[in-house]
């Protein structure tokens, strides 16, 4: 594929279809071609792999992913953007376009095409990778749904608001460590790779962004439990953190009741801790002990 044209040509196309960026949909276009290449390199797809890209936009990053991967599933909620991206990348034969909200599955779950792509990649001996430029409003719910996929992606490279990236990668014991971080870290190692300033986007967001890398763990206590069990684990952890300043003597009973399990025996010292003091694998073991 040829290098993409200057953004001014895309801007004319956007104006022709009456497009106005929506802040609620996170429609801030990343313009730096070197960053597109760098993000694709961090995902590191091979020709045996499938990449699911959530938030195709104008297809700038899609172009780089398609040049590296065997198959790309491009998901975009805005039909106008999707039509432009499809036209621009018409010569790429390995992209499958999906028009819709990534959280447009039943009950605000992930679109079925996303889970199907992960399962198909695994069945053919490849891996599924996830790449996304996510608006802040959906980042947390989407990550929670990714954690409940029947087949987890081997790697995810996510461009998100800096605050969320720091929270997801936070170690136990601090104020930034929460329930979502605990759930994600039971399944993936999490690392903030770099910060991305507002000036490389159009329009410019009001906050700093960051690239978050998630690598699937091979030693996870809950990875092999299955999608339904992992979703139950998420409910358990969420209830433990709902009143994060209260000790586990109070919150553990509520968390067990929320999933219909009996509270396992714990020492007084353990029950005097708060959920934010427990490492992800400790939380996973406490959940397993309720079985």
H and E string: HEHEHEHEHEHEHHEEEHHHH
β-strand percent reads 15-25%
Give the overall average pLDDT: 93
Say which CATH homologous superfamily of the largest domain is assigned.
Vaccinia Virus protein VP39
Assign a percent range to the helix content. Answer: 40-55%
Class of the largest domain in CATH?
Alpha Beta
CA-based shape: elongated
Number of helices: 12
Termini gap: 53 Å
Secondary-structure-based class equals alpha/beta
Kindly report the spatial arrangement of strands forming the biggest sheet: 4-3-2-5-6-9-7
Number of domains: 2
Topology summary:
Elements: H1 7-16, E1 29-30, H2 33-43, E2 50-54, H3 60-68, E3 71-76, H4 79-88, E4 95-99, H5 112-123, E5 128-133, H6 136-146, E6 155-161, H7 162-169, H8 179-187, E7 188-196, E8 201-202, E9 209-216, H9 227-241, H10 248-258, H11 268-271, H12 280-288
Parallel strand pairs: 2-3, 2-5, 3-4, 5-6
Antiparallel strand pairs: 1-8, 6-9, 7-9
How would you describe this structure to a colleague?
The chain is an alpha/beta fold and 291 residues long. It has two domains: 7-218, Rossmann fold; 225-288, no CATH class. 41% of the residues lie in helices and 17% in strands. The chain has a seven-stranded mixed sheet. The longest helix is centred in the last third of the chain and has 15 residues, at 227-241. The mean pLDDT is 93.
């Amino acid at each position: 594929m040829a290098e993409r044209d200057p953004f001014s040509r895309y801007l004319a196309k956007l104006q022709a279809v009456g497009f106005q960026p929506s802040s609620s949909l996170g429609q801030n276009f990343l313009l730096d071609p070197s960053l597109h290449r760098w993000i694709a390199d961090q995902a590191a797809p091979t020709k045996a792999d499938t990449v699911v890209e959530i938030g195709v936009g104008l297809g700038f990053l899609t172009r780089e992913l398609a040049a590296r991967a065997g198959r790309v599933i491009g998901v975009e909620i805005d039909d106008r953007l999707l039509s432009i991206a499809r036209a621009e990348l018409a010569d790429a034969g390995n992209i499958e376009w999906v028009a819709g909200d990534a959280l447009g599955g039943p009950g605000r779950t992930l679109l079925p095409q996303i889970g199907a792509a992960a399962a198909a990649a695994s069945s053919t001996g490849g891996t599924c990778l996830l790449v996304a430029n996510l608006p802040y409003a959906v980042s947390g719910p989407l990550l929670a749904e990714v954690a409940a996929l029947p087949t987890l992606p081997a790697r995810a490279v996510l461009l998100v608001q800096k605050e969320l990236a720091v929270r997801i990668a936070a170690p136990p014991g601090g104020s930034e460590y929460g329930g979502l971080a605990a759930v994600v870290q039971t399944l993936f190692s999490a690392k903030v790779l770099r910060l991305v300033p507002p000036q490389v986007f159009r329009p410019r967001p009001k906050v700093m962004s960051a690239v978050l890398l998630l690598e699937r763990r091979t030693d996870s206590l809950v990875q092999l439990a299955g999608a339904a069990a992992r979703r139950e684990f998420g409910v358990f952890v969420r209830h433990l953190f709902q009143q994060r300043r209260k000790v586990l003597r109070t919150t553990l009973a509520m968390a067990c009741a929320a999933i219909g399990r009996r509270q396992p025996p714990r020492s007084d010292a353990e029950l005097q801790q708060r959920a934010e003091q427990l490492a992800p694998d400790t939380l996973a073991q406490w959940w397993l002990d309720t079985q």
